[in-house]
Amino acid sequence: GGYEAGDEVNEARAVYDSITRLINAHGPHEIALAESARVGWSMAVYGIDFKAGDVILTTGVEYGANYVAFMQLRDQKGVVIEQLPHTPDGCVDASRVEECLRSFGGRVKCVAVTHIPTHGGLVNPCYDIGAAVESYNRSTGALDDPSKRVLYVVDACQTVGQMPVDVQRMRCDVLSATSRKFLRGPRGVGFLYVREDALATLTPPTLDHYAAAWSSSEGYTLHPTARRFEKWESSVALRLGLGAAVEYALGIGLDKIWERVRWLARYMRARISGIRGLVHHDTGVGADRCGIVTFSLKGWPAAKLKDALQRRYRINTTVSTIGQ
What we know:
The protein has 324 residues and is α/β, with parallel strands linked by helices. Helix content is 35%, strand content 15%. Strand 4, helix 6 (126-139) and strand 5 (151-155) form a beta-alpha-beta unit.
């Protein structure tokens, strides 16, 4: 039943251990499970101690929900939203990130990057961005003082399960991901990674008696691990489904999956290029594009084309719209 399944998740830590291996975290203490990647991301980002005038550096292809959150933080706390430098193909120009950080005179609080946008094939150079942020933090003496550090937040919803992810090599402080996309797990569950030495700099915007112990009549103590971002009530079945999806991907091997995804994407781009009236909308560098292929067809509204492909050929597509 539900309680026995709960014991498997919470005591054996099977799902946390699987995710730790998937993204090469230091340990399961850096992993929190959430109702979605969106919830996990929000718990971390809204937990940053923003002050008026602090700068959030983000991308020109940021996920819509993330940008709406930034605008709310702008309206509520007075933060300033600025863009990272980009190359002509739409990727973040990692070679200019450190220079960009210096140009704000210590006002940058957070660098937030969507690794792979929801459309267009683009893959941002998140490992190089992480190296640039770390170099900047080292030069300012903030590397050993997390309270002064520029935090590096990565939205990896379209990444995890599609390609190998190594949070240690990426040098990110926060990374969020979902079960339902390239991991092909159940909808309604995701996870959050928070680097151990960044935990103390983030205050969860909401708490319950799982995230914090009611330690005295007048006080509480935050959970010492990333589980301070979790809630007591959750779907055990969905969490076990996420764990099964992670183990399935690990069993195949992320390198093999990434090789296959890229081959299929290249094959599709080549085959549809000859279709009259079809326009490619992919961005990013050709050899580094991911498995997301975006196109339109002259004379076919996107929603109508989506329905026709599904009905006639059982091909599933997604319509990309402003604000998604």
